[in-house]
Write a structure and sequence with these properties.
384 residues, Butyryl-Coa Dehydrogenase, subunit A, domain 1, Butyryl-CoA Dehydrogenase, subunit A, domain 3, 4-stranded mixed β-sheet, 10 helices, 49% helix, disordered N terminus
């Protein structure tokens, strides 16, 4: 029996064939340089757009491929085997595209479907931090338009994406939020600082400041004050499952590379490989089991979403928390098994180790998710 890499599922679709070609020709060859130099993966995004993959979840009526949560998770997982920075940009694009698809104008839906526009979420703020559902940024009437002012703390693909799905306080409803579609070249928007992070170094996740940005009132996505509902219905299921899928991809890649290193590294005096040692095999077994358990929970969450099961929201909350914790554990073990070689770039494990650290701190953070899951288990309301 030989070791093998698995994925969320193994359907046969033309878009997966196109994706595998892009991974082989563009994403994988550039992954190390994207990480080393902190480069935005523009070539990958251009290739994905040209292949129609940026329109994966866009409706067929606007030129998209018409897929949903499972396909989005599968694409993100496959990309993250090679470049988590690219996977995170794609994750945020699909999460934002889901909002535009549900509430946006046809012209923007068509632009996303055709790969002409890259979208991203602009929810996290300096004042609300990981509590993305409670923005402190403002929206005020400004003649025939609306003025937006904000200090967004993290926007993936900041300055690189074309469209921001933007949160603010409501115009009229006290304590509520509203979602807007904001072109990234709007006057008054500026990227406040470059991104220089520990991991996901090519995802350009930078703070963005809005000072007197004016958008038309019809840039509103959904009703005024309905931002929370939009986030829960459109953003959260996509973001949670895709974040978990990225973690599964990182775990699977780490396990595969660690096993290959263990089998190919020899103790000369003993005539044995690392893999000949029971302790090493046990570590790799733990990595494999943790990866497959996370994948199993992800598959169940996707099944719950697709079938409308009563526990779908609970699974959505659980899946990112579980996969994020597991990814940290698995990449830790990969570093331990590979030893000193793991600190060099050529094994590739240390890049996955760094990239995996983001999962627990991206909003909703693992600690926040545990609080939500605990409330759900105790029959308490999640918010309030």
């Amino acid at each position: 029996m030989t070791a093998m890499t698995t994925t969320i599922d193994r359907p046969t679709h033309a878009y997966l064939d196109a994706l595998d070609t892009i991974i082989a020709d563009v994403i994988a060859p550039h992954a190390a340089e994207v990480d080393r130099a902190g480069l935005f993966p523009r070539a990958a995004l251009d290739a994905l757009g040209a292949a129609g993959l940026l329109g994966l979840i866009s409706a067929r009526e606007v030129g998209g491929l018409g897929h949903g949560h499972r396909a989005a998770a599968l694409v993100v997982e496959r990309i993250s085997h090679h470049c988590a920075s690219t996977a995170m940009v794609v994750c945020m694009h699909y999460a934002a595209a889901a909002v535009v698809e549900a509430h946006g104008p046809r012209e923007d839906r068509e632009a996303i479907a055709a790969g002409r526009s890259v979208a991203t979420l602009a929810l996290s703020e300096s004042g609300s931090r990981s509590h993305f559902w409670a923005p402190v940024s403002t929206a005020t009437e400004d003649g025939n338009g609306v003025r937006l002012d904000a200090h967004k703390s993290w926007i993936t693909a900041a300055g690189e994406a074309d469209l921001y799905v933007w949160s603010s306080r409501s115009l009229a409803a006290e304590g509520a939020s509203t979602i807007w579609l904001v072109p990234s070249d709007s006057a008054g928007l500026r990227v406040a600082a470059p991104f220089d992070g520990l991991g996901l170094r090519g995802n350009c996740s930078s703070p963005v400041v809005a000072e007197g940005v004016v958008v038309p009132r019809d840039a509103m996505l959904g009703a005024d004050g309905a931002g929370f509902d939009v986030m829960m219905a459109a953003v959260l299921p996509y973001f949670q499952t895709m974040s978990a899928a990225m973690c599964v991809g990182l775990m699977d890649a780490t396990t595969t590379r660690t096993a290959a290193h263990a089998g190919g590294t020899t103790f000369t005096e003993m005539g044995q490989s690392l893999a000949d040692l029971p302790t090493i095999r046990a570590y790799i077994a733990r990595m494999r089991v943790a990866t497959d358990m996370a994948r199993g929970l992800l598959l169940d969450a996707l099944d719950a979403l697709e079938s409308g099961r009563d526990d779908a929201m609970l699974r959505v909350l659980e899946v990112k928390a579980a996969a994020g914790e597991a990814a940290n554990q698995v990449t830790d073990l990969g570093m331990r098994v590979c030893g000193g070689a793991a600190f060099r770039k050529e094994v590739g494990v240390e890049r996955f180790f760094r990239d995996a650290r983001a999962a627990t701190v991206m909003a909703p953070t693992t600690d926040v998710l545990y609080d939500f899951i605990g409330k759900a288990a105790c029959g308490m309301p999640l918010f309030g």
